[in-house]
């Protein structure tokens, strides 16, 4: 069943998007308008369940008369505004952002990163082989999830999901400054010694795979992770009476990870440890 949340009707406003008159409901972002018009704008730190952080700047567009480029994910459309999504200035900016990110972090598990690097002719190699920002081995300190900070672009989505936007556990935050900045538990303790309750809501929003299920991490290491061979089935968690939706990702008859639909009006993609990781119980066949 699709649940359509009731809202007050919003007025439409008109602006120009790449030379075309465009009408969107008041309060829409430029990114909302682009998506409605079928325009493909790269995004990384934007999340459909989170307040925009404006951290990555890969979504920038040009607004006529503005001194600086605007992040499409957070800038709201205004009546009469003239926006160019594919100007030379916007494309150059996206290219440089992709070069800086891809030269300093491992984007190998970031969906569409390779495609964008090609599209914008980004050349991350021009910064040389020593540009890696973190360069450390993945943190495997529990049986449920792995933190591979070489893949972290410091988008803050996990911090927001763990903190005041959803989970209110505040187990992780950004520690350090500049090149040393990284996602960390308090005093950099291992996850089992931290406040983490293993809800996995940080994994749900991480755009790069820096945070991943241990099952996915192990299968990627073994070379057996194959999304094209996986099915996704959405069902209802049986562990308690709340009735959260679970999407089971199954490969070769094994549940390999569990996500949750972001458009669910109650849970918005969030779960607790039972829904997120309790699938191992369902797979006990002995
Ligand atoms: S699993 Fe939950 S509690 Fe633990 S760091 Fe992630 S969001 Fe925070
Ligand atoms: S771990 Fe993932 S969600 Fe968290 S800041 Fe890094 S890239 Fe973003
Ligand atoms: S996606 Fe818009 S600033 Fe990151």
From TrEMBL:
InterPro entries: 2Fe-2S_ferredoxin-like_sf, 2Fe-2S_ferredoxin-type, 4Fe4S_Fe-S-bd, 4Fe4S_Fe_S_CS, Mopterin_OxRdtase_4Fe-4S_dom, MopterinOxRdtase_cofactor_BS, PSI_iron-sulfur_center. SMART domains: Molybdop_Fe4S4. Keywords: 4Fe-4S, Iron, Iron-sulfur, Metal-binding, Repeat. Residues 230-286 form the 4Fe-4S Mo/W bis-MGD-type domain. Residues 143-162, 187-216 form the 4Fe-4S ferredoxin-type domain. PROSITE patterns: 2FE2S_FER_2 (PS51085), 4FE4S_FER_1 (PS00198), 4FE4S_FER_2 (PS51379), 4FE4S_MOW_BIS_MGD (PS51669), MOLYBDOPTERIN_PROK_1 (PS00551). One of its GO terms (molecular function) is oxidoreductase activity. It comes from the Bacteria. SUPFAM superfamilies: 2Fe-2S ferredoxin-like, 4Fe-4S ferredoxins, Formate dehydrogenase/DMSO reductase, domains 1-3. Residues 11-89 form the 2Fe-2S ferredoxin-type domain. PANTHER family: HYDROGENASE SUBUNIT, PHOTOSYSTEM I IRON-SULFUR CENTER-RELATED. This is NADH dehydrogenase. It comes from Streptomyces niveus (Streptomyces spheroides). The lineage of its organism: Bacteria, Bacillati, Actinomycetota, Actinomycetes, Kitasatosporales.
